[in-house]
Specification:
The chain is an alpha+beta fold. It is built from four helices and nine strands.
Length: 155
């Protein structure tokens, strides 16, 4: 779904787990959900603080790789994580693609409204992200995150 300025793609999902648990699954078990299966994720570094490095390598079933290297702009535990690939660690500029915004909100007893948004600099970047399979790919990883969080909530 695209918002009114045309530069944001987003997905919202209700997860059957408290937001503290969804946040823990997001931050502590990233390698298990961050890439759509059968792809896998290897965490290089996740320094969950403003200015901290976010670096992962995703590997596809045929050995292809996709590296993600950026920084966190905001980390508010149990509420919001904002990251970008416009910078590498140490505020080194690099060609920007997007800013990712993840929000965790209460959605009734024991449930979380999880929203992930990707904001882009240009309409071309939005179109590129859509063609890359934003809705299907990010939708799948949200389902994978929900599966982990809901399992954690059940104990």
């Amino acid at each position: 779904m695209t918002d009114t300025n045309g530069l944001e793609l987003s997905i919202t999902r209700i997860i059957d787990a408290p937001r503290e648990i969804v946040y823990r699954a997001w931050t502590e078990r990233l390698e298990e959900w961050f890439a759509p299966r059968p792809w896998t994720t290897r965490v290089i570094e996740q320094d969950f603080r403003a200015g901290g490095r976010s670096a992962v390598v995703m590997t596809g079933p045929n050995g292809e790789t996709s590296e993600g290297d950026g920084v966190f702009l905001e980390v508010t535990p149990n509420e919001r994580i904002v990251f970008t690939d416009a910078f590498k660690a140490g505020w080194m500029p690099q060609g920007p693609f997007m800013v990712g915004i993840c929000t965790f909100e209460d959605a009734g007893t024991g449930k979380t409204r999880y929203k992930v948004a990707a904001r882009h600099w240009t309409e071309e970047a939005v179109e590129q992200h859509q063609k890359m399979g934003f809705e299907a790919g990010w939708g799948q990883v949200i389902s994978q995150l929900a599966e982990i969080a809901e399992g954690m909530a059940r104990g």
